[in-house]
Specification:
With 395 residues, this protein is an alpha+beta fold. The protein contains seven helices and 15 strands.
Length: 395
C-alpha cells in the first residue's frame, strides 16, 4: 500500500518579475517520472517588455496572443542531432542514439554534426531556484485520472482561444483552474522566508477577453464549468463558433426578478450619478474605448460605492497608477474635492469588481444604502425631538 501512495502533484513557481511568480504543475508517478503541464502566451511580443506589459494591462492591447496550455515529459536537458528522412525532411534524434558516422546526419560547413539542446518547459536554468509544494498525493492510477482531467481542461482552454494578459488571464490562472478540474484544492508554494509566493491571477476564473484596465469579459471558465457573459452555463466553447447554452431557459444576469431595472433603465436624476458617468466616459476616451455595457456597469458600481460612503459629489474618476502593491489600472478611484489641498475625500474599488458586478447588484446596493441613510436620519430626527420635548430646568 505504501508503494501506491507515492504519486504526487506538485505546484512549481519560478521568478518572472520582482517578487511575482510563474506557476506550473508537475504530475509525478511513483517511479519518479514527471510530466509538466503549464500555460503561457502563444505569441512572443516583440519590442520593449515593459511597454508591452503596460499596453496589455492598461490599454487592453492583444500583445501576447492567447493562452496556450501544453504538456511534456519533465526530463533533464539533452542534446539532439538531425537525421535526414526519405521525404527530404530532418528529424530530431537524441545524440546518444546516433552513430556519428551516419551519412544522413545534418552537418555544418566544417563537417561537424549540427547539435541542439532540448530543455523541458519550466526546467530550472543553472543557478535558478524554484519553489514547490505538494498539492496532492495518491496512487499512480489516481494520478493518471487527474492528469487526464487536467489535459482535457487544457484542450478546452486552447479551443476557447482565451486572451493572454500578464496580470489577469495568465499561467497562474491556468494552474489553479487545472487543479480544480483535477479535483485538487489549489495551493501556493512558500518562498525562502516562509511566505506564500505572489502569483497574480491564481484562483481566478479565465476569461475570453481582457480589455482596457485589465477588465475581463466574455465567456469564462472556473475549472469545472464554462459560463457565458450572462453567467449561464454553456458547453466548452470553440473560438468563432456559436455558444451552446446547457439550459436555454436559464435567465440571464440582466433578467433578475428582484430588480427589473437594467443597463438600459433610465439613469437616476441624482447629479452625482451623472458626475460619475462623465468620469467613466473620460476614462473610456483616454483609452480609445467607446462607452459600452461595461462602462454602464462600472458607473453603477461606483455610484453604489459613493452612496455607501456618503459622498456628496464626485469631482473626478481616475484609474490608479502602478505602485509597489498594485498594477496600473487595478483600482479605480472616486475623488471628492481637490487632491492638492487637505480637504478632499477619496474612495476606491478594484476595477475588475466595478466592471464585473451586474447593474442589478449595484442597484440593490444603492437601495440598501439609501434605506440605511433614511433610517439614520429618522433616528436622528427622533433624538432631536426628544431633546426639544424634555423638561428644562428653571433657574
Amino acid at each position: 500500500m505504501d508503494e501506491q501512495k507515492k504519486a504526487t502533484i506538485w505546484v512549481g513557481a519560478s521568478e518572472v518579475a520582482g517578487d511575482r511568480r510563474h506557476l506550473y504543475l508537475l504530475f509525478q508517478k511513483s517511479d519518479g517520472s514527471q510530466t509538466v503541464v503549464r500555460g503561457g502566451p502563444d505569441t512572443r511580443a516583440e519590442g520593449n517588455d515593459l511597454a508591452n506589459f503596460a499596453e496589455s494591462t492598461v490599454l487592453g492591447s492583444e500583445k501576447f496572443g492567447h493562452i496556450r496550455v501544453e504538456a511534456a515529459p519533465y526530463i533533464a536537458p539533452y542534446e539532439i542531432g538531425y537525421r535526414l528522412k526519405q521525404d527530404g525532411n530532418y528529424e530530431p534524434v537524441p545524440l546518444n542514439q546516433l552513430d556519428p558516422s551516419e551519412p544522413a546526419l545534418a552537418r555544418d560547413a566544417k563537417g561537424n554534426i549540427v547539435k541542439a539542446t532540448v530543455t523541458a518547459p519550466d526546467w530550472p536554468a543553472p543557478g535558478e531556484r524554484h519553489e514547490r509544494i505538494v498539492a496532492w498525493s495518491g496512487s499512480d492510477q489516481e494520478l493518471s485520472t487527474k492528469l487526464e482531467s487536467a489535459l482535457k481542461a487544457g484542450d478546452q482552454i486552447n479551443h476557447a482561444q482565451l486572451e493572454y494578459s500578464p496580470l489577469h488571464n495568465n499561467s497562474n490562472g491556468v494552474v489553479s483552474n487545472l487543479l480544480k478540474a483535477s479535483g485538487v484544492q489549489p495551493v501556493l508554494p512558500k518562498n525562502a522566508q516562509g511566505e506564500t509566493v505572489n502569483a497574480p491571477d491564481f484562483g481566478e476564473d479565465l476569461y475570453q477577453d481582457v480589455g482596457a484596465a485589465s477588465v475581463r469579459s466574455g465567456y469564462r471558465f472556473d475549472g469545472k464549468q464554462w459560463f457565458d457573459a450572462d453567467d449561464r452555463r454553456i458547453a466548452p466553447p470553440t473560438s468563432g463558433q456559436p455558444l451552446v447554452p446547457q439550459d436555454p431557459a436559464a435567465p440571464s444576469r440582466g433578467s433578475s426578478d428582484g430588480f427589473k431595472l437594467s443597463a438600459q433603465a433610465p439613469s437616476p436624476s441624482d447629479p452625482m450619478f451623472a458626475q460619475i458617468q462623465d468620469g467613466v466616459h473620460r476614462i473610456d476616451h483616454s483609452l480609445n474605448r467607446v462607452p459600452d455595457a461595461a462602462s454602464d456597469r462600472m458607473t453603477w458600481s461606483l455610484y453604489a460605492l459613493a452612496k455607501e460612503q456618503d459622498l456628496e459629489r464626485v469631482d473626478n474618476v481616475v484609474l490608479g497608477q502602478a505602485g509597489t502593491r498594485a498594477a496600473a489600472g487595478e483600482y479605480v478611484f472616486l475623488v471628492q474635492g481637490d487632491p492638492s489641498t487637505s480637504v478632499y475625500h477619496r474612495e476606491q474599488m478594484r476595477t475588475a469588481d466595478a466592471v464585473e458586478s451586474s447593474v442589478e447588484q449595484s442597484q440593490a446596493r444603492v437601495q440598501s444604502a439609501e434605506q440605511t441613510r433614511a433610517l439614520a436620519m429618522t433616528v436622528e430626527a427622533q433624538e432631536q425631538n426628544q431633546k426639544q420635548d424634555a423638561p428644562r430646568l428653571q433657574v
